Structure formats: C-alpha cells, structure tokens
Amino acid sequence: MGQGLKTPVFPIDMLQGQHTPFYYYDLDLLHRTLDEISRMTAGAPITVHYAVKANGNPRIMKEISSRGFGADLVSGGEVAAAIKAGFKPSEMTFSGVGKTDWEIRLGLEHEIGCFNVESVQELEIINEIAAGMGKTASIAIRVNPDIDAHTHKYITTGTADNKFGIGIEVLHDVVNLASSLPHIHLKGLHFHIGSQITEMKPYAMLCDTVNRLLDEYDREGIHFETINMGGGLGIDYDNPDECPMPDFEQFFNLFKQGLNLRNNQRLHFELGRSIVGGCGTLISRVVYVKESRNKKFVILDAGMTDLIRPALYGAHHQIQNLTSSQEEMATYDIVGPVCESSDVFASDCRLPVTRRGDMIAIRSAGAYGESMASTYNMRSLPGSVFSTPANG
Fold it and tell me: What angle do CA 26, 193, 63 make, to 5 degrees?
C-alpha cells in the first residue's frame, strides 16, 4: 500500500514543466550508490559488472561506465549499447540461454571478456564460430546450483526447474569438454540464483556450494581464474527515502568472509537493480478521479506500458502525490489508461485527497521500468529527465 508521504527530494517546479509520463533519475543517488560499491570493493580482487538489462538508458549507462564498472549483457543489442556507452569490452560478460550466432560473432569481434555459457550445445557452437573467425572465446560455465532464493517465481533462476545454467550433476563432464575444445578458454564458473533477494541466507548457501566445488576441482588440479556470483541483491521498495540503497557492506562482506578464493582468483558480481532501482521514479499526472460503487480510482496518464512490474509480477512500488495540498486522506486504486484490467499500479492506496492534474510519483522504478516499457496500444515510450548532480 502506498503511504501517501510527501517527500522533499523532487524538484517539483522543474518536473511540472515536463510532458508526462517520464522517468526522473536522481543522479546524486546513483553516484552515491556507485561510490559505496567502489568503497566496499576497493583493494579486493573484485570486479562489478552493471547488469544492463535493469536499465539501458544511455545517460545512466554512461554515468556507470565512467566510474570504471564492467557490463553484464544478455543480448547483442546490449553489447552494442554498452560499447557505445564506453564500457570496456574486456570487462563485459555475456549471459543468456539463447545467444544467436550473430550475437556470438559480435562478442568475438569485440573480444569481450567472457561468455557465460548455459548449455553444452551453446559451448560447442561458440567453439565452432570462434574457429571460423580464427579466435579463442573466453567462457565461464554457468552453474545451476539448485538453490531457491525465495523470490517471485518469474525471477527465480537458480533451481533445477529453471531454464538457466548447467546442473551440478553434469558439471564435471562440461568442464572436461570445455577444457578439450581448441577455440575455448575456460576462464571460470558463473552462478546466479535469482533477483530481488533481500535475505543473505541464499547467498551463504551459495558460498558453501562454491567452496565445495572449488575443493573438488583443487583435487583434480583444475584452477579457475574467475568466480562470478551473479547479482540479484534486492532493494527496499517500502522505504525508498529511509533506505535509498541496499546494505552493500553486509552483501560484500558475506562473500569476502564466506568464499574461500584461491590465489590469483578474481571474484565477479553482476549487479543491476541494486545500482539503479532506487534512483528512478516514474512521474505521471492524474487524468481523472473516478468513483464506482465500491472503489475510488485515480486514473493516470502512465500505464503498464511505462512500468509493467505491477501487472507482470504483482510488484509493489510506493506511490506519492507530489502536489496535493490536502491534509485529508482517501483510499484509491491507482490505475493506468491501457485497455487491460491488469493495468493497475496499486490497490487500496492511501493518498491525500487527489484531483485531476495532480502529479504522482511511483518510486523505486529505476530498474526494469524504462527498460521494459512498450508501445502497446500504440502509446509513446516514456521520456527521461535527470537531476543536476551536486558535483556538476
């Protein structure tokens, strides 16, 4: 439920002059988040890759690449966008279960740092394409550790029932195959167990699994250069002002203390939501306020085409009326204009009495908001507006 809180973080005068709906990005918060991650990884053998699927806005990507982060990619389009945004190809990882031939060629042409391989057939095809190009592909084998991160079923990726990764029970055979292929350089192991993970227990379980695997491969004389633990760290959708970024200290310390890395072994992460989720807000205006027998509806000019997470996942976002001067509160369903009954942002949301023209903020929408927007109903894609960073 929305809390109806008024917040001082938005430059209302500037925002009121913009055509709605649009995404507003707080670049100061983004910079503070990047600074905190850099602080927690300084001096450690850790590389953080930004998961571009969370938000591919060119300005956001350039801000992140300028801080020296790598990029985690899941399509050829993301590879091209990351290169354009200034990410170094050597610091790119390419994930995904369905890499097409042209996408593999694109990655090889730019000599990206690592393909995260998710099946035996993909491994063989990468070797074949690399041979045809006279190249060697660096790869990590994505391992499905069969760990349930207890998130929504659509964003769980690490159980035996998911399409992602290679099962531990056949991992040794795949490692041996990768080591035998002439145009493959087996660089490491890759893991990713889900998204919006807010408890550390699944990560602790993952550390135990990785430690057991490394012990087994030590006995076989096999050394991996990289161990990629994926991402999935969640954000606080209920309290965006009190908790604007996750507890990165707890997150990184868990891996520093829980993983038994070998000498000359580098730890990789692929963080997306935790970097950009809090800095983005969908700004909309009230078109109508409608009252039925049982409900009051606030109808926005933003819809599920602009932010699909509530319709797709039943996701919760805090909703605020930024411009109402009313002290009296009322209960509304917050809905959009799209011709679908699922076009609902929140039910039974408490807001100050709301009227046509009021400006509404849907918070914590920086991840999987703009990047999942569509033109369904032939609607225009939302625009983007950026704060002026304090450092210019």
Answer: 25
